[in-house]
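User:
Can I borrow your eye for a moment on a structure tokenisation matter? Would you put together a sequence-and-structure record for a protein of your own picking? Please set it down just below, with no commentary around it:
AI:
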Amino acid sequence: MTDPLVYWSREDYVMTCTVISHFFNEAFLLPFWLRHHRTIFDHGILIDYASTDASVEICRDMAPQWEVRPSRNCEFDAENVDDEVKSIEREVTGWKMALTTTEFLVAPELSAVVRSSGGATAECIGLDSVVLVDPRAAYGRPIDSNVSLVAQCPWGYIDRAHDMRRRRFLHSHPDGGYHLGRHDTHHPYRFEAESFIVWFGWAPYYQVRARKLQIQTRMSQRDRQLGLGFHHIVSEEQLDARWESQSKLSGDLRVDEHYWQAVARCLAVGHG
């Protein structure tokens, strides 16, 4: 039985939880992402940036009750992307979370935490990230489309220093009140230690390499001039060098009891 992120307030009012995400040509990651999150969230709003692959069809097939809508933006522009996400958040009530297709929520105990808030006031919960990085020996390995991607990518490193560059938020405000990039917020928030984001930034690297190179083709001129999203402007050689550098930080996450037990509890209730 799944355990969606809903809670009862003091008035016994059911508050649902909605995930909002945008995508462009994510046919590889989306099946894993949707299978993982459709048992966590009550609803999803998925923003298509004019994908030319099967991404839209995958969303409609795997999450038919969720909404897929075309973006109002023709390019990836950091400010416009954030404005669209916040605008959509203001359309829905309850708890909300904005994630990218590379970000998987691992939250085995979060439904109880959300329920315990009581619903009296709007709240915000901050979650840090675990960075997944393939070691060199794992490059090019086959990926089973029927098995959770979190289970198949057990290498990386845990951000113990609360790196704000990868932070995300679950909140019940009208919108997230985000700083640019949605990795920080104006809202006061608390951390939920038992939950975190798994970021497929560098794993499975053979499969995600192409998507990391395509992002720069959709960036706005304004972002380029302002130096925003500079990490997306990269050659193949530069990207591979960054992966090599990241792989030196990577270790087997299965030896971290806290991390692997949280992943196991998520998978046990059908997430992924």
About this structure: The longest strand covers residues 17-23. The two ends are 13 Å apart (CA to CA).
